[in-house]
Amino acid sequence: MRIVVLCSNVYSETGCAMAVRMAELGYVPAGALALPTLDRGTVVRKLGQWGARDVIRYASAKLIPHRGDGRAQVSNPYLQPLLIHGEGVFRSLREVAVFYGFPVAVCNDQNAPDSIARLKEWSPDLIIFTGGNILRKQLLEVPRLGVLNVHLGLLPEVRGMSSPEWSLLNHVPVGVTIHYIDAGIDTGPVLQRCEFPDAARCELLSDLRNRLIAFGVEQVAEVVAGLDRGTISASPQSDLDEDHQFFVMHEWLQARAAARLTKRRSVAVAESVNG
Amino acid sequence: MTDSVAASGDNSRDNAITDQIAKALTEATGLLRGPQRVVPLIQRLVSDKLRVTFEQRHLYSYATTKRSSGDALNSLLRWILDAQRPDGGIAAYYSLLSGYSESYPEVTGYIVPTLYDCARTTGDDDAVVAVERATQWLLSLQMPMGAFPAGLHGRLRSGLHGDEKQPSVFNTGQILQGLVRAHVETNRPEILQAAVAAGDWLVKMQHADGSWFGPAAYQNVAHTYYSMVAWALAELSERAANRRHGCSDHEHSLSYGLAAERNLDWVLSHFRPSGWIDGINLRGHPNYLHFIAYALQGVLECGILRQRSDAIEAVAKSSWVLLRKFETNKSLPGAFEPDFKNGQRFTCLTGNAQMSCVWLRLFEVTDDLRYLNAALKMNEMMKPLIPARGGRGVFGGVGGSYPIWGRYQPLRYLSWGNKFFADALLLERRLKRSFEASAFEALPCAS
Question: Rounded to whole angstroms, how far apart are CA atoms B55 and A49?
Answer without folding.
Answer: 16
